[in-house]
């Protein structure tokens, strides 16, 4: 009686330990954001590996059953019921199978429990390595899924290090890489700096997800305005187009679906607070906010802001325009090294030829173009304080 009581107590202790073990795995799975079943399947796979490696079962087809509640495990050798056994490792005779269960037939799958008595210690050591690896893979998969869904969005992180001009940004669960070509010219990055960047691409690699980000992409400017302007978030104001020369100057074209809401004023904000928050984030890059217009001539005139436009001749088929400005506005319309005209062309998607009034007076208008006398609509230019 004493021996039986001790045996029973020992078994109950083992079952309690196994249950605690499974509870711990569930907590770990929840902590790592992994489905518990993924871990349980990893344990079963690890036990199969351990059995084959340590108990001469390499040639055997085995299955491991792990009780999800108690943590008890059993190893079963899987054999095929045959008339005549050719390979005793994979086959069992019909007569032997029917001696155990009479309704077996040829071709059925027969399972024989082969759990070794001292399997626990070896299995635990092997399982630990496999489970840790599976957790790592699952975590990487979760991170990849999370950030791949955020491509073309903004992330905020902390500069972790700079190596070979590449800036590595700590995002908490993983890191992003800002390559030299995606950095704003003249911008410096120091350890601990908090910066925002635009997610270009998320790639799956053997070392985990690789997140490529940009500080120069036009999408960064668009997303920053979306965060700062509630009217954009609500769908009342829309950013129709963005053109950037990173670190120097940008233009955005905005449109309002509500006649009572000024899209330019919404993006500027009270006392310019909204646009200034964007400018501060892109290190004082000058930003022109102009009204989008369905009329191509008016849109082109707006895009050349802050220059005043007298007339615009357009060829809709070829997307070519001829813009006339007052003589004293010519240099402003073209901009330093052609920057204003270049950005306006990028913003509108039109080729823009700019002439002063005196130059235009000496030239004939191309008959293929429709001439429109225009007055530019409201626009706004913002730039940060010089450092």
From TrEMBL:
* One GO cellular component term noted in the UniProt record for this chain: cytosol
Keyword hit for Ribosomal protein: no
Localization (cell):
Cytoplasm
Q: Highest taxon of the source?
A: Bacteria
The yes or no answer to whether the keyword DNA-binding is present is no
Q: Where is the S1 motif domain?
A: 152-216
Record's CDD domains? KH-II_NusA_rpt1, KH-II_NusA_rpt2, S1_NusA
Pfam families in the record: KH_NusA_1st (PF13184), KH_NusA_2nd (PF26594), NusA_N (PF08529), S1 (PF00575)
Keywords (alphabetical) are: Cytoplasm, RNA-binding, Transcription, Transcription antitermination, Transcription regulation, Transcription termination
Where does this chain mainly localize?
cytoplasm
Its GO biological process terms? DNA-templated transcription termination; transcription antitermination
Q: Name one GO molecular function term.
A: RNA binding
**Subunit-level organization:** Monomer. Binds directly to the core enzyme of the DNA-dependent RNA polymerase and to nascent RNA.
Q: Which NCBIfam families match?
A: NusA
What this chain does, per the entry, is described as: Participates in both transcription termination and antitermination.
Please state which protein family the record places this protein in: Belongs to the NusA family.
Please state what the protein is called: Transcription termination/antitermination protein NusA
Species in which this protein is naturally found: Schwartzia succinivorans DSM 10502
């Amino acid at each position: 009686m004493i021996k039986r009581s001790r045996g029973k107590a020992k078994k109950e202790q083992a079952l309690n330990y196994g249950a605690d073990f499974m509870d711990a795995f569930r907590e770990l799975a929840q902590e790592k954001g992994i489905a518990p079943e993924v871990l349980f399947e990893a344990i079963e796979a690890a036990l199969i590996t351990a059995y084959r490696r340590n108990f001469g079962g390499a040639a055997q087809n085995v299955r491991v059953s792990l009780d999800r509640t108690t943590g008890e495990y059993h190893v079963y050798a899987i054999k095929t019921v045959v008339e005549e056994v050719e390979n005793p490792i994979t086959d069992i005779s019909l007569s032997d199978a029917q001696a155990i269960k009479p309704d077996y037939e040829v071709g059925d799958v027969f399972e024989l429990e082969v759990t070794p008595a001292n399997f626990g210690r070896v299995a635990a050591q092997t399982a630990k390595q496999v489970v840790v690896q599976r957790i790592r893979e699952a975590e990487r998969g979760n991170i990849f899924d999370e950030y791949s869904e955020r491509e073309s969005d903004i992330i905020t992180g902390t500069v972790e290090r700079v190596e070979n001009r590449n800036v590595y940004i700590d995002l908490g669960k993983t890191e992003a890489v800002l390559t030299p070509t995606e950095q704003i010219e003249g911008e410096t990055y120091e350890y601990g700096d908090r910066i925002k960047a635009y997610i270009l691409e998320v790639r799956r690699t053997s070392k985990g997800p690789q997140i490529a980000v940009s500080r120069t992409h036009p999408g960064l400017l668009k997303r920053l305005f979306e965060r700062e302007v509630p009217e954009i978030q609500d769908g009342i104001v829309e950013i129709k187009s963005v053109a950037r020369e990173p670190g120097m100057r940008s233009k955005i074209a905005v449109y309002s679906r509500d006649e009572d809401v000024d899209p330019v004023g919404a993006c500027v904000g009270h006392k310019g607070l909204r646009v200034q928050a964007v400018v501060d984030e892109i290190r004082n890059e000058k930003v022109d906010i102009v009204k989008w217009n369905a009329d191509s001539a008016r849109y082109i005139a707006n895009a050349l802001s802050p220059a005043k436009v007298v007339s615009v001749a357009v060829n809709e088929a070829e997307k070519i325009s001829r813009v006339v400005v007052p003589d004293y506005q010519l240099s402003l319309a073209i901009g330093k090294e052609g920057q204003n005209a270049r950005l306006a062309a990028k913003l509108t998607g039109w080729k823009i030829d700019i002439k002063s009034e005196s130059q235009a007076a000496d030239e004939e208008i191309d008959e293929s173009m429709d001439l429109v006398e225009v007055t530019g609509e409201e626009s706004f230019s913002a730039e940060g304080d010089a450092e």
